[in-house]
Protein 1
Amino acid sequence: GEGSGEILELDERAGRFVSRAPQGCPLLQGVSLSADGTGWATGFRGELYQRLAGSWRRVDAEPPATVESLHATWTDPEGGVWAVGGNVLSSSLDAGALLHRGAEVAAVPPVPDPGPAPAPTCPAAAVDPRPTGTIARRWNEQILGAIRRDIPRPTVHARNLYHLSAAMWDAWAAYDATADGVFLREKHTAPDVAAARAEALSYAAYRVLAHRYAKAVGGPTSAACFRAFMDKLGYAPDDTVTTGDSPRALGNRIGQALIQAGTEDGANEQNDYKDTTGFQFVNTPLVVDNPGATLVDPSVWQPLNLAVAVTQNGVITTSGVQGYIGAHWGKVTPFAVSRPQGGGLYLDPGGPPVFGAEVRAHVVDVLRKESGLGGDELVDLSPGVLGNNSLGTNDGTGHPLNPITGQPYASQLVRRGDFGRVLAEFWADGPKSETPPGHWNVLANGVADSPGFSRRLFGEGPEVEPLEWDVKVYLALNGAVHDAAIVAWEVKRAFLAARPLSLIRYMGGLGQSSEPAGPSYHPDGLPLVPGLIEVVTAESSAPGQRHAHLAHLRGLVVVHAWRGEPGDRRNEVGGSGWIRATEWMPYQLRTFVTPAFPGFISGHSTFSRASAEVLTALTGSAYFPGGLGEFVAPRDSYLTFERGPSTDVHLQWATYYDAADQAGQSRLWGGIHLTPDDLVGRRLGSKVGLSAVARARRFYDGTEVP
């Protein structure tokens, strides 16, 4: 407790530690000792204690430090004592203080005024990353760049991808006699249709992106990139004309229509997408740096309290308690899904697993996967062994042959630990990523770029022009990811299901549920699984035994799991080992840990299966071009949570469905989700994708508008 501090010193003669704390000593957090045996300790309320002649005494600071704690202390070579702290025992994290006692030191010189910050510029490589692509592809690259700079709000980015795609589609459709527009349904002619389309599409895209990312993280750089790209194209970004039949006037009207629609679609864009439903947390926040979890209702999601917060794509954000991202997203206007007659959820998942025996089984699965992150057992990643699952299951045993080559898929043997870590990080869409909705745009672009790829819509008829292919794919694909966000986040809000971090720490703190007569028994505790979940005993913690380093936890539950982020992530590996269950961490950075929204259902699974349905339908085949999609994670340089992998790892997929399933599975390896979150997300994602294809096809055929 705050009023019960302790100072332990080793009594070498007795061979044990003894208490040296003065009476009434509060919580102490900082200590520094000199070679002569003198020292200092600091802690709660800024109190200071000095060690002289083998004993500790309280010393008053002048003036006193009015902070929650001085949490670190250092004695310099000249004998001066330094202490730092502030309000570090709560989520305030303010009132920073630095104290010095000793000979006067030189004052820190004032920081010179650097003057006005230079205007943001766009990195040269980001002005036009794909100059050989269609005009739609080149604008798609612009939004992917903006997403990578922004914080990872998958719901917001899915909506922006859809609205950009709809804007580009409306500009293309305006010069097509058959197609129907989505937000603006005008028809135009031009002497040079290709040039008119490029101009109208660019002005529409520019207006939407400049508006949407104006206040985003990285927004000034993104704005500079949008302008630089317009300049490269020879267009005037400041020309906002909306009257007349010119392509730029048409493009500006389309942009204007999208911006107006965005104020009325339920996203609350004008207030930075803040919750409009008045959501209140059921459980108090979990302080990640402290062991255990306190839950009023263990079935309900618990937000985190992070001392340092960094988003999944590497953007530093405000620390403290997580907000709920997208609590109101079920109210956003979708592209294709519709509510059942009489109301209710767009798609009813049937509910998450109930806390108790059902949840215990899924928690064990997460722990088993994470325990394998340090495993040396070889596994085969070949599409001949993995994939080919039925919808919403993991029942597949691979594909016997590559249908394009007629040959078996080559074996890909790697360590289980390398596979699990690469899988978790690749699909996590971490530092500088385009988030899951954007990830499937990258995959779709890669499909179109494949040598010899035939752009035949739905796998039928003659090839279409590359621009027609791109605008049609983007409309269906990003309409699908937009709807996937709405469906998944509506389900998340309806059930508010807990994440593995809270469940494992909470259940581990209760005890074990397998042996009523054994130590630490609790009916809601973790089940005992030899080699995975155990209770520390005198025998298991004896010198040289598996729990020897946990002897002080005798009688408590421990798990064999990832040991956490190492101090030097570039050169060290956390690995797997025995840790206290109440200190379990998912395979994530300590500054991120778990997303800021409930678990059931998985957004990754829903986004990915919806996208796989779109690509399968539009290409006319479930298979990647050539029957193989692949990503190579290079040895010792790919991972960001720790060093690795120990060898090159080839993630391979025969079909889009295989890739989508692997995206969902990755969230279990990363400790983010339970199995039902993934499997149910896949099932709902399939329905979302198919409905998006059906509606997009009506826009293509001109049958959407009577």
Protein 2
Amino acid sequence: MSCPHVVEARLQPPRASQSVHREDCTQCFDSIDEPEGLNVCLSCFNGGCIGDRNHAELHQKLSGHPLVLNIRRTKKPKVEREEPPKKMSKLAIAAETENDRYDTHTSVFCYGCSGKEIERTTGNLPAVIDGVMSAMTFARQTEVQAWEQEINPCEHTLCLEQEASKQLESQNLAHCANCDLKENLWLCLQCGNLGCGRAQFGGVGGNSHGLAHFDTTQHPVAVKLGSITPEGNCDIYCYSCNDEKSDPEIQAHLHHWGIDIAEREKTEKSLTEMQIEQNLRWEFSMTSEDGKELKPLFGPGFTGLKNLGNSCYLASTLQCLFALPSFKERYYEKVKSSLLEVLNPAEDLETQLRKIADGLLSGRYSKPDSDVASEYSTELPHQKGLAPAMLKALIGKDHEEFSTMRQQDAFELLLHLFSHIERSRHPEGLEDPVSDFRFVLEQRLECLGCHKVAYRTDTQDNISVSVPARRIKTPDVVMDGVGEAEAGKDKKDTFEPVTIKECLDIFTADELVQFTCKSCGSKQGAKKRSGFKTFPKVLAINCRRFDIVNWVPMKLDIPVIVEDGALSLDKYLSSGLRPGEELLPDDQGEDNPAFIPNEAAMSQLEAMGFPKHRCEKALYNTGNSDTEQAMNWLFGHMEDPDIDEPLVISSGGGGAKAGPSQDQIDIVTGMGFTAAQAKKALKECNGNVEAAVEWIFGHMDDNFDDDQPMLEAPKEKSDPGSQELPAEFKLNSIICHKGGSIHAGHYVAFIRKELEDGESWVLFNDEKVVQSGDAEEMKKFAYVYFFKRA
């Protein structure tokens, strides 16, 4: 039938920049594979399911958009092949196409015409339909980009000044200027020096002479000779930025040294190819000790998440969080019967977290799929898994690291996600689930001269503990299996096991610090000790096992022993001010340690090689919460004459509690906001610049009078957590990592679950969910531990 709404709607095909959600619903994981299919709005291209949940109808009521394209996909019958199909390569994504496997059916319906099907040739409907069907879907776009790093030029490649040219040795005869290596050679584009690179995955040799050349000359840009192709593709590395970069003038810069790219032949793998190969190799065993395949699990709470390329850090973190009561209740159990009325669900954090919760916990999508055959047995198919593409894009938006397709640190992602959830609005009756992680850490400082004391408190949602490295001198021992630090190396250091209690003992032990006492004038220093003033319901512990190699944190395989029984934290409870103790004056001048740096952010900055005093200053001036903002502050203040002096605080308090710093105010006002807006927003957001900007946009009706008198006294907030004893915790889940660096390798989650045959550990390895049984070895090398209060 003809429809008058086609002309009225003024439909246009989707632009290249628009997201077309034509694979799954933006509010749940129902997809075009459902019997009813998926309705795609032809005005804004939102995807809505039309089954029992009918999110498509909800979107129509909110938006008023009448026309939808129904897309339904069915599997084609399998055709028997005389020859086996070609093996699909991650590097060559174009293999079997969607059209080879599925039949796709489309129809146009109009809600304005009582939901009737209409003639698809009316007006410009054909062009719009073709545009929707040919547009790259949101999820597919993510998958394709997942194996391509986002590499851009930098100031050093754009402003490169080359020295006088000279003739280089031919490609076959070239070798490192400092050793005899003839592979993994890097050409300094500034002076023409040839230096070998760092040792690479797969046994590629390297003595880091290229890096040594940079340390000596400060020539930043080098190109890997063996990676140059006739098309002009090659690996370019900037040592100053410590990252891969691109060079728009690479052809001219190479020609300066007598290299004609048209005559070059690629002889070595690129860095991207090696990273992909390495990440694919980090597989966690899916078989038991007797060689039998681990049993796949299905149903509520046993749903896997697809790896979007390098997104295993996200999948493992989400699995651990949504196995906890606070996240289950907040985003699933208390809201599953209600519908969120949001015009743009794909851009709404509340909607996407509920979507993830429903996907993981409902069991609706946890079913065996014959297309996902096991590599060990065709009789044990796994599930298809859900693609968390919308949530990944949303929480990574405008973030320097999480917006890319590179592997990231799962612990940093956890803190980033906590920050987003804390800043989001929580409807009445629904609590912030991160509150279960919060507790108060108390710091006690005692002057070594007069023995007067000072106490400071800091609210935290995690702790990051150091793991002592005690090497066992057995260089010829060959290790395999769990905890392998770097593929291609058979000989490596081994370490004595360390208990989690020893790590906590070190975390709460006395530490000597520089201190000038204004009470007695002593410069002997002070003893500083941290303890728990309250305990959380869930304690997240990040175990730091790193060593800095060429300014890159490399993981050490130190076993951490965690007992199966309850972990008692009673002895770590801080006693507070004791009888007979005398407090130091509130104003301790320049040496007053009123500021307590965020433990997790501090440890991450120190792991990057920044000195302690610089880290403290950066965190103090950026709100004491965000590692990225602190790092940017450091890069902007490297030339400050007092950058290495101890932190000076003019009065008691620290960081956000002392009010926003001028640097923070300048950042916000530099975006076009007034000083009053900046001050108030920064105070409301504890100095977090990113959150402050969002807060301003959400409170535009505020008069932003920072100095207005308080009409009533603010309500005193109680400390998060509990002081109740005994404080016993049981390990609930772990995030494990394989690989030499936290920014490469592979992450999985092990979660303690109640199964039909009793309690057992369950392995969540991307879309694969299997009963693991014994996780003792994995517990020793976990990266993040989640302890639940017993």
